[in-house]
Write a structure and sequence with these properties.
Elements: H1 3-10, H2 14-22, E1 29-30, E2 36-37, H3 42-54, H4 59-71, H5 76-111
Antiparallel strand pairs: 1-2
Coiled coil: 82-109
Organism: Amycolatopsis echigonensis
Keywords: Coiled coil, DNA-binding
């Protein structure tokens, strides 16, 4: 499958595919004319990569987990790594929740008339 077809079917840009390949997340072969050719499973792999990126994993972490993802067999190390990533996301979410709470407090203050704080929400 050519790069444009994979990009279209996976809903990503050609540039993203080149980046994934550069990062060692997907592989292609080259035709005699130098065009990239991908296997039939490339679209599903790109979808998985997108999900992992959306979950906050870095290229390096995804690359580290690829052997387990490809074989369908996890290792103690991969399970530890995934738990670490989940803990990192949990902490990030907690931080966002604290920020949201502070913002809600600021909104309440701003909505309460106060001559010493002329902030007005409109």
């Amino acid at each position: 499958m050519r790069i444009g077809e994979v990009a279209e079917r996976a809903g990503v840009s050609v540039r993203s595919l080149r980046y994934y390949e550069q990062q060692g997340l997907i592989e292609s072969t080259r035709t005699s004319g130098g065009q990239r050719r991908y296997g039939e499973d490339a679209v599903s792999w790109v979808g998985l990569i997108q999900q992992l990126y959306a979950a906050g994993l870095s290229s390096a972490t995804i690359r580290e987990l690829m052997p387990c993802l490809q074989s369908g067999v996890s290792t103690p190390e991969s399970r530890v790594r995934l738990r670490e990533e989940k803990a990192r996301l949990d902490e990030y979410i907690s931080g966002l929740e604290r920020t949201r709470e502070r913002l809600e407090e600021m909104i309440e203050l701003a909505e309460t008339p106060n001559p010493h704080c002329p902030v007005v929400l409109g």
